[in-house]
Amino acid sequence: FGRWLEHLARGKTSEALSKLISLQPTEAILIALDKLGNVVREENISTDLLQKGDIVKILPGEKVPVDGTVLQGSSYLDESLISGEPIPQMKSVGDTVIGGSMNTSSWLLVEVTHAGDDTMLSQILHLVQEAQTNKASVQKLADKISSVFVPIVIGLSMITSFFWLTLILLAKNFEWRFVCNLNETNTNATQGLSYKDCLYDVSYALQFAIAVLAVACPCALGLATPTAVIVGTGVGASQGILIKGGQPLEKMRKINVIVFDKTGTLTCGKPVVARMSMLVTLEEFSKELIVWLLASAEAGSEHPLARAIINYARDELQLQEYGRCLEFELYPGLGLKSKIHTAGQTRFFGCKDEYTVIVGNREIMSKNQVPISMLIEQDLAYLERDGHTLVFVAIDSQLVAALAIHDPLKDDAKQAVGIIKHMKKKVLLLTGDNRVTAKVIAKQVGILDKDVIAEVLPSHKKECIKSLQKAGYNVCMVGDGINDSPALAQADVGIAIGTGTDVAMETADVVLVKNDLIDVATAIDLSRTTVRRIYFNFIWATLYNYVSIPIAAGILYPIGVIMEPWMAAAAMILSSLTVVCSSLLLKLYRKPKYKIKQEDNRYGTFHRSSDGEESISIFNKP
User: Fold this and answer.
1) Which positions are annotated as active-site residues?
2) Which of 60, 105, 322, 486 could form a disulfide with 296 if both were Cys (CB 3.0 to 4.6 A apart)?
3) What is the pLDDT confidence band of residue 616, given thresholds at 50, 70 and 90?
């Protein structure tokens, strides 16, 4: 019966996830594009036949069949079944879409990145199934207790039977009198009755032994932990937090140090141009011409800074085509030199047919005899102090502009760090980036300089985590890249960002599907809530056995209270149902609401909103 109840709780948890898989469409519209991006062929095929690189068309009202990237179009997608976010999300060119989400407004062309068992939904189901078989330490303790519980109960039953049989013999020899628990309608209810009436034969003694066996079923103890773990991991999955089993779910509440990676975790992981400083007058070179020549020179590069420059040019000029690159010389680690042909370009009036463009740092400018004055250095120094990377641009040996490029902070990074600090957790920044940039990011999110560990190799990240553990800390590592994997594996709990690498997500104990850093705090809160429920279940089951076994053995018989075997069996069933229902109540869990107030304070305070939900105010200190 206990196993059936556990199976019932497991089924309730996996029901929503299984529904997600079943809701995926079985067919998709596969299309082919020509060189200009026009659709030349459409056909309906089974989603099982889709492969990485295929392009599918998704019409309004249809579900996304696979994970992919938007190539054309823009639309609002309802991702509530996957991420728990009730508001449809706008998706446009370059954005990632998740299989199973609903297209609500317009058509999309999507390039397949993951299909079949590699989709996010399939991985969620796999992780939850894995989590359900992973036991927390408190569950292992309950299993050990349950393993010795049965022989102990059998022994108690035999002792109870022996006790009452012995009592019968003593009653016969000394003619003791006992008080029986009879119905109020019995005329002898208020009288003491002799042993000939109360203890008529051995069957009366066996009644107590059978009641002990019936009431002391170990199901309640055995169900106390697994049902809560199963429901807790399922609730986490519905909130976009994938917890791989009972052990990380239990360990999260004990974490007292949280270590964040920088690139891709606290920051977006994609460099962008923060500003462009013109170093010449508009009469010499227009900003539009400089940006166009710059993008033309960088068009063939795959360097992250080059991608940032090209994206900036597209946003500024809405570029559709670039100038022709006649010569290209790469300076590894420094920049590039290129000769751009502008013939046929009518966008810029009066421009030359050919320009020599140099893009890069100070050293490449020096190698090509392009001077950078001290005045310019002084004017731009503050950008480097703020963690920006300076990229200089020279055209025909004349310095014309400087770009400040940085990896922007995620919108929720500062709030997440503030919330975690208010939960009395120590927050560290661990990165392989240079110390200046690391300290700038740390200052922006509220991490102290002394808590910044920079210029660290991947193998050394693991050693840093290990040294914290040796110092007695319970460490949680939050990262997204392959270089974070050793540290994620070493930490007591590793948390991977959902947009990170597959290696990081496979190594981590917890995966944040929605790429929301505030979910780190939510995972801790869910861990606390689930473990409290586990302890409640465990204490209830233990107290139930401590109270019910003596009653079933007849300890209250002298005052007229007897537990019949059928009553004992009913009590056992009720106890198991109580534990399962207690665990299922975790499905009502809602993540705390976090509110922001712009006040002159640093971290803020938790408070409860009018609806009783726990909240936090994060304040900005100038």
Assistant:
1) 261
2) 322
3) very low
